[in-house]
Amino acid sequence: MRARLQGQIFSLLASAEFLDLDEQLRVGEPLPDPRLSSPQSGLYARIYTKGHKLVWRSPSSMGKHLPPVRDIKVAHWHFRRHEQQGAEKVFSLEFAVAWENSEGKQFKFIFQALENFSVYRKQVSSFRNELWGWLLAVVVVLLVAQGIILRWSLKPLREVASDLVRVKSGEVERLHEGYPDEIQGLTEGINTFIDSERTQRDRYRHTLADLAHSLKTPLAVLRASAGDDSPGLEQIDQMKRIIDYQLQRASAAGRTTMGATTPLMQSAERIINSLQKVHAGLGIDCQVKGSPKLVFPGEEGDLLELFGNLLENAFKWARKSIRVTALYETDGSKKVLRITVEDDGKGIADDQKESVLQRGRRADETVAGHGIGLSVVQEIITLYSGQITIGDSIELGGAKIVIIIPVL
């Protein structure tokens, strides 16, 4: 603002002419800045003598109440900001000069240029708006650049998460290679953990199975050597039932941290075909309903053990019909696998629906078996965080067993 007013004064000095006879100054037309000729333009100019006598003023200052000029030394500048109550708020710049006439006599004049605050405020406001606009644009560009950089830099972690989901769903067995060096140690550690878990689980199952099998032969010898009326025969049979039960437990892997998936319908049909051959003389019609895309969220051994026990019981109790239904359902925000096995047998009494799930308990003691089939099913379901419900089949009239297993 000071520089602009200084330019106005220099322009007035260039246009001013000293009159020797009148010893006064005259400013030629047209004025250097057209705003000086326009009323209400906000730009004003005045010239005073040494005694503060007004010599000349611009047409734009007519009728304006402007601040008075100050007495300053020749060749000195004085810049002020005027905000007096009732007066127009302006910036003013004053400059004193000495003019010599032809006789060498000096005459002092004070040039004053003034400009309204509104022009200043408009320029400041415009500058601020433009500045904020550019700052916002820079912020947007930086945020976009940061988002791109973060997305690019976190891409390997998203790939790890995606691979982990594929491992949990059983699509792949391990995380793939080729990750950046920064997370190579992490992926190698996860792969080592997966391999170690599977190895340890298999070793545990094999050890239990070997132990159970190794005990079955000595027990068979003891039972053969003992007579039918031997008092220890019942204890030997009890030990055999315990070993059979533990052997079935050993075959149940349960849901692992990095589990596999097994096609459901193929396993079910395989077991049904086998049981229909065993019970061919009964003429039982077993219907299976379910999509070929259904998968069991675990290992095949657990699914075979589950279906084997359920269908074996169904074939024992059914008269002519068995129906197996499998489908996906939504339980709240979770996806679950629902398996239903129904038969047209005499069903299970209400007071026995809880007890038959306990090891060694049977609904009918006259039917051959050890009473551990449904308890194994219950244990497998528990390992998979599922639930089993025993009810009555409305359509077939027999028992209805419903199994619900969460799907990863």
Description:
It is a single chain. This protein is α+β, with helices and mostly antiparallel strands. Among the domains are: 2-120, Beta-Lactamase (2-Layer Sandwich); 261-406, Histidine kinase-like ATPase, C-terminal domain (Heat Shock Protein 90), CATH 3.30.565.10. 43% of the residues lie in helices and 22% in strands. The chain has 8 helices and 14 strands. The chain has helices at 2-15, 117-153, 155-169, 181-225, 233-251, 264-278, 300-317, 373-383, and strands at residues 16-19, 24-27, 43-49, 54-57, 77-82, 90-100, 106-116, 262-263, 285-289, 295-296, 321-331, 334-343, 387-392, 399-406. Strands 4-3-7-6-5 form a 5-stranded antiparallel β-sheet. A hairpin with a 5-residue loop joins strand 6 and strand 7 (106-116). Helix 4 packs antiparallel against helix 5 and helix 6 (264-278) packs across helix 7 (300-317). It is rod-shaped, with a radius of gyration of 51 Å. Mean pLDDT is 82; it is low at 360-372.
